[in-house]
Amino acid sequence: MMGPAHSLSGAAAWLGVGAAVAAAGHAMPWPVLVAGALICAGAALAPDLDHKAATISRAFGPFSRGLCEVIDKISYSVYKATRKPGDPRRTGGHRTLTHTWVWAVLIGGGASALAVAGGRWAVLGILFVHMVLAVEGLLWRAARVSSDVLVWLLGAAGAWILADVLHKPGNGSDWLFTAPGQEYLWLGLPIVLGALVHDIGDALTVSGCPILWPIPIGRKRWYPIGPPEVMRFRAGSWVELKVLMPVFMVLGGVGGLSALGFI
Question: pTM of the full predicted structure?
Fold first, then answer.
């Protein structure tokens, strides 16, 4: 899928989690719901770090473009080193390493460890990166005609406000993990969820997605998981733009209202 659809699906997924835990009697504090939805929307772009033409490649100027090239080469090297006889030969690393459950868990776990070890400044950095990505994904039309500096300023302002709100007692810094020293440990969860939602979205397209790597399936280790071919679509097609994106908006709205107790 394209960047905007990925971001919308990420935000909707976290709002759905908020609705689910509220129904189970453990409602999220509203700052966790809002911050998590925005982080998840940004994280849902991150697996495309292996593609230099993706939305994320433009998010941080030359730095993100250079990072995409590095990740592409690393992903391609891992693919070549681990492919089985049934896996096709490739010339690049797109939709390989960064589109697996292993990558999602490593990135989310790393973010949680960084947040716990680094405290508020690390949290601010994690929020800033994902706020910028959320702006690029959710407000993509405006972001593309704006300067990078304006997008960064908006991301920085959002990150600063959310970090300040979350830091206040009772606003969710210790949500889910309440032991001393575990504040902000939950920050990795929307990152893992965003990456997995991205992979599921890509699995719906004609190319499929090797989510289960390194688990071998038949003669392939990079098996492209997906529904039957008749149910797949091309990225950027009318199915994505006219059907899936409106569905994500509705589901996200319903999830958010339910999580906040309005329905």
Answer: 0.94
